[in-house]
Design goal:
Number of strands: 8
Oligomer: single chain
Bound molecules: cytidine-5'-monophosphate
Largest sheet: 8 strands, parallel, barrel
Radius of gyration: 17 Å
C-alpha cells in the first residue's frame, strides 16, 4: 500500500459526456486531495484537450482507454498518452506479452513516464462468459494468470476488483500496484456495481488506488463527498491500527 491515509489514493472517475459537466466537477475538486480518471466516454466526446486541461489544473490524470491492439499500435498510443503528460495509462493484459512489453519499452524512453497498468479480465465477465470466449480458466484463474503475465512483462500493476487484490499480490508481489474500482462508501448507493468494498476494506485488502466515480461526481456537494470518503478512510485506518 502506498500510503493508507494519503488522500491521493482516491482517483475520481470523470464519467461525463461533455467538457462543461467535467469542468464543473474539476473546479470543485482540489488536485492535492485526489487524482482523476478520464475514460472512453469523455475522451471520445471531447478529445485530448480535456486531458491537457485537467493536467493544467494540477491533477494527475489516469487515462483509462484500455489499449488492446498489435504491439506497434499500442506502443504508439502509450507514447501519445505520455506526450500528453498523463500520470497513468492502461492496456488489456489479454493483448499478450509482446503487446505489454512493447508498451513498457516505449514508456521507458520518457524521463518521467506514466505508470502502466493492465486490465486482467473485465469484472463484467462471469465464468460462463469467459468459457464462451474459449478460455478453460474460470474468472479467478484467468485474473491470476493475466496478472502474473502482466507482472512478468514489467507492467507496474493491474486494475482489479477489491476481492482480487490479495490473490494478485500473493501471486505477483506486494509492490505490484492494485488499482481498484467497485468502491462504495458505507451507506452509499451501489448503482450498477455488485461486488463492492468500502474504501477502508479496499485499502485493508492492499489497494494502492481507489477509483470512485458516482458517489463523488453525482453528489450535491462533490468536494464534501470526497472529504467524507477520506475521513472514513482515516477513521477506519486509526481503528485498525489501535
Ligand atoms: O461510478 P463508479 O464508482 O461505479 O465508477 C467506477 C469507474 O471505474 C467507472 O469509470 C468504470 O468504468 C470503472 N471501472 C469499473 N470496473 C472495472 C473497471 C473500470 O467500475 N472493472
Amino acid at each position: 500500500m502506498i500510503a493508507d491515509t494519503d488522500p491521493n489514493v482516491i482517483i475520481v472517475a470523470l464519467d461525463f459526456s461533455t467538457e462543461q459537466s467535467c469542468c464543473v466537477l474539476l473546479e470543485q475538486l482540489d488536485p492535492s486531495r485526489c487524482r482523476v480518471k478520464i475514460g472512453k466516454e469523455l475522451f471520445t466526446s471531447v478529445g485530448p484537450n480535456i486531458v491537457r486541461r485537467a493536467i493544467y489544473s494540477g491533477f494527475d490524470v489516469f487515462l483509462d482507454l484500455k489499449f488492446h491492439d498489435i504491439p506497434n499500435t499500442v506502443a504508439a498510443a502509450c507514447r501519445a498518452a505520455a506526450d500528453l503528460g498523463v500520470w497513468m495509462v492502461n492496456v488489456h493484459a489479454s493483448g499478450g506479452r509482446q503487446m505489454m512489453e512493447a508498451a513498457r519499452e516505449e514508456l521507458a524512453h520518457f524521463s518521467s513516464r506514466p505508470l502502466l497498468v493492465a486490465v486482467t479480465a473485465l469484472t463484467s465477465l462471469d465464468d460462463n462468459a469467459i468459457r464462451e470466449l474459449g478460455f478453460a480458466d474460470d474468472a479467478n484463474a484467468l485474473v491470476k494468470r493475466l496478472a502474473k503475465l502482466s507482472y512478468d512483462c514489467g507492467v507496474d500493476g493491474v486494475v482489479c476488483s477489491p476481492n482480487e487484490i490479495r490473490m494478485i499480490k500473493d501471486s505477483c508481489s506486494a509492490q505490484f500496484l492494485a488499482v481498484t474500482p467497485g468502491v462504495r462508501p458505507k451507506g452509499s448507493d451501489l448503482d450498477d456495481q455488485r461486488r463492492v468494498a468500502t474504501p477502508g476494506e479496499a485499502l485493508a485488502a492492499g489497494a494502492d488506488f481507489l477509483v470512485i466515480g458516482r458517489p463523488i461526481s453525482r453528489a450535491a456537494d462533490c468536494a464534501a463527498a470526497l472529504s467524507a470518503i477520506y475521513n472514513e478512510l482515516v477513521a477506519d485506518h486509526s481503528r485498525e491500527s489501535r
